[in-house]
Write a structure and sequence with these properties.
186 residues, mainly alpha, 70% helix
């Protein structure tokens, strides 16, 4: 292994706390593939599992884009929720630090008091705004819908329950339509 490759490999391992931090300006398109997408059905499985190839094709051609849109939407809303929370925590930390400095010097520093008052007022307004946007509800709803689509596909593959008779593909597509139009984010 070359020294440059070792350095590159070392840089990829960030502490868990930093990996979980939200990304500030992250707005990838929902309908396009992302680098970190995990495949539900790998393309080579179509050749590897001949008996299931027709059913696996249903996922690849009809369900994958619908699942990915909801999956990506959930990730974007989750990042937005985390960013909102980190902003509130950081703002609270700065307001507390300003109050600590004011108390340590015995008070009377007008610009610190004004800065703290303005910051806490902004944080209060931001809190109201964040609650009204309901990002957590949105990402949980989108995640639930994406996972339900995947679960329905597994039931379809096993021909369990409602997929045991009739036209299972039509039934699956109807179930996915119902999942997508359920209350919450569509």
């Amino acid at each position: 292994m070359v020294d440059g490759e070792k350095k590159k490999e070392r840089r990829r391992h960030w502490p868990a706390l930093l990996v979980r931090l939200p990304r500030l300006f992250w707005h990838p398109p929902e309908d396009e593939p992302w680098d970190d997408d995990w495949p539900v059905v790998r393309p080579e499985w179509l050749n590897q599992y001949q008996l299931l190839a027709q059913d696996l094709t249903v996922w690849c051609e009809q369900l994958e884009p619908r699942f990915r849109r909801l999956d990506h939407q959930a990730q974007l809303l989750q990042n937005q929720f985390w960013l909102q929370r980190v902003t509130l925590i950081a703002g609270g930390l700065v307001a507390t630090a300003l109050a600590t400095v004011q108390a340590a010097v015995g008070g009377g520093i007008i610009f610190l008091a004004v800065a703290q008052a303005v910051l806490t007022g902004l944080l209060a307004g931001l809190t109201v705004l964040i609650r009204s946007r309901r990002a957590q509800h949105g990402y949980l709803s989108a995640r639930l819908k994406a996972e339900r689509i995947k679960s329905e596909f597994y039931l379809f593959l096993s021909r369990a329950a409602r997929y045991a008779d009739g036209d299972p593909v039509t039934r699956l597509l109807q179930e996915v339509d119902d999942i997508e139009t359920a209350e919450g984010i569509s």
